[in-house]
Amino acid sequence: MRINRKASSLLCGVSALVLACDGSERDPIAPRNVASTVTALTSMGASGAGATGYAEIHGTTVQGIKDEIFSFTALSTGSAFAAMGQVAVHFLTFTNSEVTVHAEVTCLSVVDNQAWVGSRITRFARDGEAVPARVGLPMVFTVMDVGEDEGATDLASLVFFGSSDDLEFCNTRPAIPVLRLSTNGGIQVRSE
Length: 192
Prior knowledge:
Number of strands: 12
Distance between the termini: 36 Å
Structural class: mainly beta
Strand content: 35-45%
Shape: globular
Number of domains: 1
Largest sheet: 10 strands, antiparallel
Order of helices and strands: EEHEEEEEEEEHEE
Oligomer: single chain
Low-confidence stretches: 1-38
């Protein structure tokens, strides 16, 4: 997937997460104003732990995903693992099928610099065609903030659709999906 930051963008906001595209390429960049998004979510009841950012990950033939890019904001509401926020995902399969997903964050678990995020799909499209059967299903992923030092590379998993329960994912914090190097991106994790 070729990087084309001038032609595409990802805006992360409280009311919507919009994925802009140029042709067949969809290349999110960091949310434009993470601080204002966090402030707005906090005023809506989010508190404590949080994670936000974007990641670019290369998959393998085992997962069937060639490249994946996602951007997200997840903030705790202070009630067990409950959280609010949004996730936008774009990935390219090895069969050259393009998938875009939007999801609402349902839960978050943070331990030190690692976060487990659960969500429910609100929009799912394959090659531009909506797949309504996917709406409402759980989607989960894990991220790790390794700091801001020069040469630091954050880690993220591919998004995973096979989880039977997003809340259980946040509660149990499994070691899968496996963390991978984010070849480009920036992730921030804040514990309570």
